[in-house]
Structure formats: C-alpha cells, structure tokens
Amino acid sequence: MRINKSKSITNWGLYPSIKTNEYIPQSIDEYKEAISSSNKLIARGNGRCYGDASFQNDVISTKKWNKFIDFDRDRGFIEVEAGVLLSDILEASVPAGYFITVTPGTKFITVGGAIASDVHGKNHHVDGCFSEHLVYFDLMIESGEIVRCSRNDNPELFWSTIGGMGLTGVILSARFLLKKIETAYIRNEAIQAKNLDEIFKLFEESESWTYTVAWLDCLQKGDSLGKSIMLRGEHATLDEVSENIKKNPLKIKKKPKLNIPFFFPNFALNPLSIKVFNWLYFNKQLKKHVKNYVDYDQFFYPLDMVHNWNRIYGKNGFIQYQFVIPKNNGLEGMREILKTIADSGNGSFLVVLKLFGESNSKAYNSFPQPGYTLALDFKVNKGLKKLIEKLDEIVERNGGRIYRTKDAMSKPSLTNYLKNVDSTKFESIQNERINRFKKQ
Ligand SMILES: Cc1cc2nc3c(=O)[nH]c(=O)nc-3n(C[C@H](O)[C@H](O)[C@H](O)COP(=O)(O)OP(=O)(O)OC[C@H]3O[C@@H](n4cnc5c(N)ncnc54)[C@H](O)[C@@H]3O)c2cc1C
C-alpha cells in the first residue's frame, strides 16, 4: 500500500498543521491492512474542514475512492464511493435534471465528509441536513468488517456515524436521493437590511423560501450593527427562464476561475482593507431589492470561483468560527457577539448568517439546532485566542454551541456534544483535545 510518511497536512484554514502518515488504500484489503496496522487513525476526505477534525498521526485518505456505483436517472437515487466530490456528482446529475438536496457552501467536499459532518445548507429549515436524504452507507469498522447502515440495518451505527466526525469507522460508499430540477438556474432575490432587527425580520418573513442566507458586514456598529444582504432563492422552472436559457436549461456556461497564486503578506488583511472590501460589497447593489436569475454555481458556491482563496489570510492561516444560538436568545445574543467583534477590530471578510429549522432528534450527532447560526473567518494572530474566549463565553451563556467541523480552539464544553463514538482505533486529534477537558 502507498503510505506518504511524515506528510505535512492542513485543513482549509491552514491552521493548525501537522505531520502525518497518510495511508492511501487501493483495495478493500488495503483498507483492512491500514486499520489493523495502526493503533489510532482517522479518515480524511478533501480536507475542507477547518481546524484539527481530520488530523491524527495516521490518516487514511479516501480520495482515490471516487467511482460512481449507480445512478437511477428515473428516480434520482445515486450511489458512489465515499471519496467522490459533490462537484463530480453535480457534473453528472445536473444535465440529467437532478441537484444535491443539501449542499454546503463549497462543492469540493467528499460524500464521506458530507456524512461525517452531516452538512447543512441554505435550506436547513426546509430540507434538514445531508442525512435526511441518505438511504444507506457502508462502513468499515475496527475489525475490518464492512457494515451496511441504514434506518433499518444497524440503526445505532447509522445515527452515530452521521455527524460522527469519522470516529466510528471509515465510510466506503453511500446511496442517497437527489432533488429533481427543471433548470440549472436559481430565481434569486437580494435584499439589503440596514441592521440586525431588519435582517432577523427578513428571515422570519422568508421561511417559505427554500434557500435563505445573509452576508453581514461585521465592522458596523450602533444603528448599523448587523448591516447585511439577504439572498433567497428557488430552483427556477422552465416557464420562468429566458428563451435563451430554455434552449439548454440544464447547462451553465463555464466561467474562468480566478486564482490566488501565493500567500498574501501579513499586512494585506487589516481592518482598513476589510472596511474597503465591505464598503464595495455592501454598496455594489444600488436598489434595496433586486430580483434576477443566476446559475447554481453563482448562488451556492461563490467562493469556489476563486481557487486557493484561503491564501488571502497569509501563511499563519485562519479559523472559521461557527456557532448556533437558540431562536429565543437569537437577537440579543447575536447583537452581543457582533458588538464584541466590531469592538475588537478583528474583522472578517466572510460573515454568513442563517436560520436553522427543526433538527432531527434521531441524528443526535448533527450540529444544527433550531436557531440562528453565524459563521465567520478570523485570521490567526496574537489577539485571536482572547477574542475566541470572549465569544465562546457569550455563545455558552446563550445556550449555543460550536460546529465541530470548523472548530480549532473553542472551549471544549461547546463542542462536546457527540455520543456513541467511543472507538479507540478511530480517533482524531480534535477529539482527544475535547475529551481531555471531559476527563478534568
Ligand atoms: C468554503 C467552505 C464552505 C463550507 N460551508 C459549509 C456549509 O455551508 N455547511 C456545512 O455544514 N459545512 C460547510 N463547510 C464544511 C465542510 O462541508 C465539512 O467540513 C466537510 O465535512 C468537509 O468534507 P471533506 O471531504 O473535505 O472532509 P475532511 O475535511 O477531510 O474531513 C471532515 C470530517 O469528516 C471525516 N471524514 C471524511 N471522510 C470520511 C469517511 N470516508 N469516513 C468517515 N469519516 C470521514 C473526517 O474524519 C473529519 O472528521 C464548508 C467548508 C468550506 C471550506
């Protein structure tokens, strides 16, 4: 089997980094061999989590496991190996009139990673998490045995693996249901909100929309705290789109991709440059309410248009801080958090607000809970740990928690929500860090 010894790896935030032995199995026997020859290891997909979730001294890469097993074009069921990327699925499924029912803000994640984090999208309040549309998956457990898991077959293992962050075994393949679409376009509305009260009201009013999300300017204070733009959308039907699109409704034009060719120097990202960026972003839309049609890439994956955008934060990297707080405390909790960030001057280009709907109580390891969730990037610098401590304290006081797949340095009591993931073989450095706190 190929093993890359002492390979340096990072996840998307480039912080932290670690040297690991990367096992790259070519066959089921090599998967078994990797698992039996290591004392402790964790599965790794495309490294699009942040922090240390897919880190261990030994990791097992699923990226070579990227074959399609079955695609039922009549009913929309797809079965793939766990290393297949969502982008590969879309390339095959959109021309056939199907879309991934729940997708995160990047399409460059594997199916194994989607299940292990039980990812959510802009439609959580309507379609739940990725697992809602999952039929079954095959999991290799400690003994090397392959176990089929579904709601009926091995349901305990099914539910603990969903959102279980790779701590129950290695997902080898999965079958799930796609959503029927008539076009590759989204009917999109962009609405400006002048502050937090306005954007919260907009979320409440937009609950019947399938997709809702807001981008915030986190350096605003006072009456403008929470200044934002809401995007809401629906898959466009054939009747709605222009004659031009109707000719080939399931095809989108390939766009040239931008690339960040090198790490930005440390001074490049500072409160002033973020202020300028935010000013340009939040003022480019002249009207308060704009309606248009955009292709699915523009609507779901705007960040994927810029290759290596994670380099803009420089070599020290960045963390993503994502929390959820219950709806009752939403407005006041969020106000306190945004005020703390604005006062710290530690700005973020990327600030995304969403409203989660009801969660599935059976999927007990999934992160979402009913309430407001905010995700923001912070460049790693000397003051960051102190800021995170302050934010964690507010999240905890408001009954919230932190998303494990983004966690790098939060208070373990906020990420300590996983159950039934007690394997001693499948273990991440992140889980060890969180468990050390549990034992104290
Ligand atoms: C730009 C960007 C936007 C994002 N937006 C969202 C969002 O909107 N919603 C959301 O929910 N998430 C979002 N994420 C997070 C991302 O969807 C998850 O971290 C996802 O799990 C990454 O998948 P991956 O294949 O890269 O897995 P990795 O990052 O390699 O691993 C993530 C976790 O999955 C486990 N894992 C991976 N493969 C397997 C397998 N085969 N078997 C068992 N365990 C496995 C790993 O052990 C690890 O714990 C975003 C990330 C980025 C970079």
Tell me what you see in this structure.
Keywords: Membrane, Oxidoreductase, Transmembrane, Transmembrane helix. The protein has 440 residues and is of the alpha+beta class. Helices cover 25% and strands 27% of the residues. The chain contains twelve helices and 21 strands. The strands form five sheets. An eight-stranded antiparallel β-sheet has the order 16-12-14-13-19-20-18-21. Bound molecules: flavin-adenine dinucleotide. Flavin-adenine dinucleotide is lined by residues 11-12, 42-49, 53-54, 62, 82, 104-106, 109-110, 112-113, 116-117, 119-121, 165-166, 170-171, 303, 405, 428.
Rg from C-alpha positions?
21 Å
Please report the total strand number as a whole number: 21
> By helix and strand content, what is the structural category?
alpha+beta
pLDDT < 50 runs, ≥5 residues: none
The major β-sheet equals: 8 strands, antiparallel
**In DSSP terms, counting alpha (H) and pi (I) runs of 4 or more, how many helices?**
12
Organism: Faecalibacter bovis
Family: Belongs to the oxygen-dependent FAD-linked oxidoreductase family.
Keywords: Membrane, Oxidoreductase, Transmembrane, Transmembrane helix
Protein name: FAD-binding oxidoreductase
